[in-house]
Design a protein that fits this description.
Layout: E1 4-8, H1 14-21, E2 30-33, H2 35-41, H3 43-51, E3 56-62, H4 66-76, E4 83-87, H5 92-102, E5 111-115, H6 123-129, H7 136-150, E6 154-156, H8 159-169, E7 174-177, H9 196-202, E8 206-209, H10 211-214, H11 219-230
Parallel strand pairs: 1-2, 1-8, 2-3, 3-4, 4-5, 5-6, 6-7, 7-8
Length: 232
Protein backbone atom coordinates (compact mmCIF):
# COMPACT_ATOMS: atom_id res chain seq x y z
CA UNK A 1 0.00 0.00 0.00
CA UNK A 2 1.66 3.22 -1.17
CA UNK A 3 1.54 6.32 0.99
CA UNK A 4 0.00 9.43 -0.53
CA UNK A 5 -0.98 13.00 0.28
CA UNK A 6 -4.63 13.87 -0.39
CA UNK A 7 -5.47 17.55 -0.85
CA UNK A 8 -8.77 18.61 0.72
CA UNK A 9 -10.39 20.75 -1.98
CA UNK A 10 -12.73 22.56 0.38
CA UNK A 11 -13.89 25.16 -2.12
CA UNK A 12 -17.41 26.47 -2.62
CA UNK A 13 -17.53 26.29 -6.42
CA UNK A 14 -16.26 24.37 -9.43
CA UNK A 15 -14.50 27.50 -10.69
CA UNK A 16 -12.49 27.98 -7.49
CA UNK A 17 -11.58 24.28 -7.56
CA UNK A 18 -10.37 24.33 -11.17
CA UNK A 19 -8.45 27.57 -10.60
CA UNK A 20 -6.65 25.76 -7.79
CA UNK A 21 -6.04 22.50 -9.67
CA UNK A 22 -4.78 24.40 -12.73
CA UNK A 23 -1.77 25.47 -10.66
CA UNK A 24 -0.54 21.85 -10.77
CA UNK A 25 1.05 21.52 -14.17
CA UNK A 26 3.34 18.58 -13.38
CA UNK A 27 1.49 16.58 -10.71
CA UNK A 28 -2.03 15.17 -10.56
CA UNK A 29 -2.63 15.20 -6.81
CA UNK A 30 -5.10 12.85 -5.10
CA UNK A 31 -7.97 15.17 -4.10
CA UNK A 32 -10.71 15.07 -1.50
CA UNK A 33 -14.14 16.39 -2.43
CA UNK A 34 -16.14 17.16 0.69
CA UNK A 35 -19.69 18.21 1.48
CA UNK A 36 -19.31 21.89 0.60
CA UNK A 37 -18.15 21.33 -2.97
CA UNK A 38 -20.32 18.27 -3.63
CA UNK A 39 -23.47 19.99 -2.39
CA UNK A 40 -22.65 23.12 -4.40
CA UNK A 41 -21.88 21.40 -7.70
CA UNK A 42 -23.28 17.86 -7.52
CA UNK A 43 -21.92 14.71 -9.18
CA UNK A 44 -20.67 16.64 -12.24
CA UNK A 45 -17.72 18.02 -10.25
CA UNK A 46 -16.59 14.47 -9.48
CA UNK A 47 -16.80 13.46 -13.13
CA UNK A 48 -14.90 16.55 -14.28
CA UNK A 49 -12.05 16.17 -11.77
CA UNK A 50 -11.83 12.46 -12.62
CA UNK A 51 -11.65 13.34 -16.32
CA UNK A 52 -8.67 15.56 -15.51
CA UNK A 53 -6.82 12.49 -14.22
CA UNK A 54 -7.03 12.91 -10.46
CA UNK A 55 -7.79 10.20 -7.92
CA UNK A 56 -10.75 11.21 -5.76
CA UNK A 57 -11.70 10.67 -2.14
CA UNK A 58 -15.41 11.53 -1.89
CA UNK A 59 -15.83 12.61 1.72
CA UNK A 60 -19.57 12.67 2.46
CA UNK A 61 -19.55 10.72 5.77
CA UNK A 62 -22.80 8.83 5.29
CA UNK A 63 -24.72 7.97 8.48
CA UNK A 64 -28.29 6.69 8.25
CA UNK A 65 -30.29 3.48 8.50
CA UNK A 66 -28.56 0.55 6.70
CA UNK A 67 -30.96 0.41 3.76
CA UNK A 68 -30.67 4.14 3.00
CA UNK A 69 -26.88 4.02 3.16
CA UNK A 70 -26.79 0.92 0.95
CA UNK A 71 -28.86 2.68 -1.75
CA UNK A 72 -26.81 5.88 -1.51
CA UNK A 73 -23.55 3.94 -1.84
CA UNK A 74 -24.91 2.13 -4.92
CA UNK A 75 -25.39 5.55 -6.55
CA UNK A 76 -21.93 6.75 -5.49
CA UNK A 77 -20.30 3.58 -6.87
CA UNK A 78 -21.27 4.74 -10.37
CA UNK A 79 -19.20 7.93 -9.98
CA UNK A 80 -15.89 6.04 -10.24
CA UNK A 81 -14.33 7.61 -7.15
CA UNK A 82 -11.29 5.92 -5.61
CA UNK A 83 -12.30 6.22 -1.96
CA UNK A 84 -15.39 7.14 0.05
CA UNK A 85 -16.50 7.05 3.67
CA UNK A 86 -19.18 6.81 6.33
CA UNK A 87 -19.50 7.25 10.10
CA UNK A 88 -18.50 4.17 12.11
CA UNK A 89 -21.06 5.28 14.70
CA UNK A 90 -23.74 4.01 12.31
CA UNK A 91 -23.10 0.41 13.52
CA UNK A 92 -21.64 -2.72 11.94
CA UNK A 93 -24.92 -3.46 10.13
CA UNK A 94 -24.86 -0.07 8.46
CA UNK A 95 -21.23 -0.52 7.41
CA UNK A 96 -21.95 -3.96 5.94
CA UNK A 97 -24.92 -2.55 4.03
CA UNK A 98 -22.73 0.27 2.71
CA UNK A 99 -20.15 -2.19 1.45
CA UNK A 100 -22.85 -4.19 -0.28
CA UNK A 101 -24.23 -1.11 -1.99
CA UNK A 102 -20.81 0.15 -3.03
CA UNK A 103 -19.71 -3.12 -4.64
CA UNK A 104 -20.43 -3.16 -8.36
CA UNK A 105 -21.73 -6.15 -10.29
CA UNK A 106 -18.21 -7.02 -11.46
CA UNK A 107 -17.00 -7.12 -7.83
CA UNK A 108 -14.99 -3.88 -7.98
CA UNK A 109 -15.56 -0.99 -5.61
CA UNK A 110 -13.88 2.14 -4.24
CA UNK A 111 -11.91 1.94 -0.98
CA UNK A 112 -14.39 2.29 1.89
CA UNK A 113 -13.29 3.78 5.21
CA UNK A 114 -15.09 4.76 8.40
CA UNK A 115 -14.81 7.95 10.43
CA UNK A 116 -14.05 7.07 14.06
CA UNK A 117 -14.20 10.45 15.81
CA UNK A 118 -13.83 13.80 14.05
CA UNK A 119 -10.49 15.54 14.60
CA UNK A 120 -12.39 18.52 16.03
CA UNK A 121 -13.76 16.34 18.87
CA UNK A 122 -11.86 16.38 22.14
CA UNK A 123 -12.22 13.69 24.79
CA UNK A 124 -14.00 16.16 27.05
CA UNK A 125 -16.60 17.00 24.39
CA UNK A 126 -17.08 13.36 23.53
CA UNK A 127 -17.79 12.46 27.16
CA UNK A 128 -19.83 15.52 28.15
CA UNK A 129 -21.85 16.03 24.98
CA UNK A 130 -22.02 12.58 23.38
CA UNK A 131 -22.15 10.66 26.68
CA UNK A 132 -19.43 8.27 25.53
CA UNK A 133 -17.64 7.53 28.77
CA UNK A 134 -14.75 5.44 27.47
CA UNK A 135 -11.54 7.28 26.65
CA UNK A 136 -11.28 8.72 23.16
CA UNK A 137 -8.48 6.27 22.33
CA UNK A 138 -10.51 3.23 23.42
CA UNK A 139 -13.53 4.51 21.50
CA UNK A 140 -11.54 5.02 18.32
CA UNK A 141 -9.93 1.57 18.52
CA UNK A 142 -13.35 -0.05 19.16
CA UNK A 143 -14.92 1.79 16.21
CA UNK A 144 -11.96 0.72 14.03
CA UNK A 145 -12.45 -2.91 15.07
CA UNK A 146 -16.15 -2.63 14.21
CA UNK A 147 -15.21 -1.29 10.77
CA UNK A 148 -12.79 -4.16 10.24
CA UNK A 149 -15.43 -6.69 11.32
CA UNK A 150 -17.83 -5.14 8.79
CA UNK A 151 -15.24 -5.71 6.03
CA UNK A 152 -14.15 -2.11 5.49
CA UNK A 153 -10.65 -1.21 4.31
CA UNK A 154 -9.73 1.20 7.09
CA UNK A 155 -10.66 4.27 9.06
CA UNK A 156 -10.31 8.00 9.16
CA UNK A 157 -8.63 8.91 12.43
CA UNK A 158 -6.25 11.57 13.65
CA UNK A 159 -2.56 10.75 13.14
CA UNK A 160 -2.25 10.47 16.92
CA UNK A 161 -4.43 7.32 16.85
CA UNK A 162 -3.09 5.70 13.66
CA UNK A 163 -0.50 3.64 15.53
CA UNK A 164 -3.08 2.27 18.00
CA UNK A 165 -5.44 1.37 15.16
CA UNK A 166 -2.66 -0.49 13.31
CA UNK A 167 -1.71 -2.30 16.49
CA UNK A 168 -5.27 -3.46 17.10
CA UNK A 169 -6.47 -4.07 13.53
CA UNK A 170 -3.24 -5.08 11.77
CA UNK A 171 -0.80 -3.25 9.53
CA UNK A 172 -2.90 -3.89 6.41
CA UNK A 173 -5.85 -1.97 7.86
CA UNK A 174 -5.71 1.49 6.32
CA UNK A 175 -5.45 4.75 8.26
CA UNK A 176 -6.42 7.97 6.52
CA UNK A 177 -5.49 10.90 8.69
CA UNK A 178 -6.62 14.52 8.54
CA UNK A 179 -5.47 16.99 11.19
CA UNK A 180 -2.04 17.40 9.58
CA UNK A 181 -0.24 20.72 9.87
CA UNK A 182 3.32 21.82 9.21
CA UNK A 183 5.37 22.25 12.38
CA UNK A 184 5.47 26.02 11.77
CA UNK A 185 1.77 26.30 10.83
CA UNK A 186 -1.56 27.21 12.46
CA UNK A 187 -3.71 24.36 13.84
CA UNK A 188 -7.01 26.12 13.05
CA UNK A 189 -10.12 24.52 14.60
CA UNK A 190 -8.70 21.02 14.96
CA UNK A 191 -7.52 19.76 18.33
CA UNK A 192 -5.80 16.47 17.49
CA UNK A 193 -3.08 17.38 15.01
CA UNK A 194 0.45 16.45 13.98
CA UNK A 195 3.00 17.05 11.19
CA UNK A 196 3.44 15.09 7.90
CA UNK A 197 6.79 13.77 9.17
CA UNK A 198 5.26 12.56 12.44
CA UNK A 199 2.28 11.02 10.62
CA UNK A 200 4.74 9.03 8.53
CA UNK A 201 6.53 7.78 11.65
CA UNK A 202 3.25 6.81 13.32
CA UNK A 203 2.16 4.77 10.30
CA UNK A 204 -0.56 6.76 8.50
CA UNK A 205 -1.22 5.45 4.98
CA UNK A 206 -2.75 8.66 3.64
CA UNK A 207 -2.72 12.15 5.05
CA UNK A 208 -5.45 14.64 4.15
CA UNK A 209 -4.15 18.20 4.02
CA UNK A 210 -6.36 21.22 3.37
CA UNK A 211 -5.59 24.77 4.42
CA UNK A 212 -1.79 24.34 4.78
CA UNK A 213 -1.81 23.72 0.99
CA UNK A 214 -4.93 25.47 -0.32
CA UNK A 215 -4.29 28.80 1.44
CA UNK A 216 -0.50 28.77 1.00
CA UNK A 217 1.15 31.55 -1.01
CA UNK A 218 2.52 28.80 -3.26
CA UNK A 219 0.17 25.76 -3.06
CA UNK A 220 2.32 23.62 -5.36
CA UNK A 221 5.41 24.18 -3.20
CA UNK A 222 3.37 23.43 -0.07
CA UNK A 223 2.06 20.21 -1.64
CA UNK A 224 5.57 19.16 -2.62
CA UNK A 225 6.80 19.88 0.91
CA UNK A 226 4.04 17.63 2.25
CA UNK A 227 4.92 14.83 -0.14
CA UNK A 228 8.62 15.19 0.70
CA UNK A 229 7.96 15.03 4.45
CA UNK A 230 5.35 12.27 4.33
CA UNK A 231 6.33 10.03 1.41
CA UNK A 232 10.02 10.92 1.33
Amino acid sequence: MGKDVIIACDFSSAQATFDFLDKFTEEKPFVKIGMELYYAEGPSIVREIKKRGHKIFLDLKLHDIPNTVKKAMAVLSKLDVDMTNLHAAGTIDMMKAALEGLTREDGTRPILIAVTQLTSTSEERMQKELLIHSSINDTIVKYANNAKEAGLDGVVCSPLEAGMVKESCGSGFMTVTPGVRFADGDVGDQVRVTTPQKAKEIGSDYIVVGRPITTADDPVAAYRRCVEEFVG
